[in-house]
Amino acid sequence: MFETHRPVESLVTLRDYVRWGGSRFREAGLVFGHGTDNALDEAAALVLHTLHLEPDMSEPFWDARVTAAEGEAIVARMERRVGERLPLPYLTHEAWFAGLPFFVDQRVLVPRSPVAELIAHRFAPWLDADAVERVLDIGTGSGCIAIACALALDNAVVDAADISEDALEVARVNIKRHHLQEWVQPVQADVFDGLVPGTRYDLIVANPPYVDAGDMASLPEEYRHEPRLGLAAGDDGLDVVHRVLAEAPRWLSENGLLVVEVGNSAPAVEAAWPEVPFEWLQFERGGHGVFVLTAAELATHAGAFRRDRGRGAVS
Prior knowledge:
Elements: H1 14-28, H2 39-50, H3 68-84, H4 88-92, E1 95-97, E2 100-102, H5 115-120, E3 134-138, H6 144-152, E4 157-162, H7 165-177, E5 184-188, E6 201-206, H8 213-217, H9 239-247, E7 252-261, H10 266-272, E8 279-280, E9 290-294, H11 295-300, H12 302-305
Parallel strand pairs: 3-4, 3-6, 4-5, 6-7
Antiparallel strand pairs: 1-2, 7-9, 8-9
Helix pairs in contact: 1-2, 1-3, 2-3
């Protein structure tokens, strides 16, 4: 825990606060993964956001002096990060995804999907981005994937679907923030149940709950602040993935593409459908457990995917 006496008098520059905060975070054994992966980067992100500075601030400004009031504000947030084990984006109410800022709170998961890299490449080589007209984002949460897709795919209208009305309230904030009310439509839906029947999508991106029972039981405290509805997916982590794969063929256009993130449950996917040629993506900036299937591949293996359909619900 922090010292009773706050160290504002002995810390002078931004760099001082980052170094001191990083040391305290490591001392406290914090767990990272909600935008940063180490103590110093976490401290830097906290300092910059508290002082309303850009994350790509130029090097000389790290030696700028911090006022007493600013120092108090920084230390107060650091104390909460240590004492409550809250993920940093829940303290700042901001997370970055695909180079874009998003409002977040504890109604939604903190954005961190490697799908951002796929969006940056406009889903090449699997899709002609300019030909994509309708996109479905399953488990939209904050709306980050839906919004990033709308900005990357010039001609696409995006349905941002989530079972949680609380999550959709957050998504609406971000849709308005990025001025995409005409292009991104929040929809309350349990996987596909709740969508307009007969709609066909050129692209479906699913980031459903996929954490299995073993991983749920061992989650660090930071991750336990996130909504369980967006994480837990049964013993093998595939409760919702079964439904996505079974029902997706009815919703994809003839040349459509399905992208699904399953994280650590990737081995369970391959064990459940060993006959299916899942294409697992490799990411330059890290991340794993994302596969793509074309509409044709889904149709070929429809019989296998219809097994055990109807498991679970999506957040």
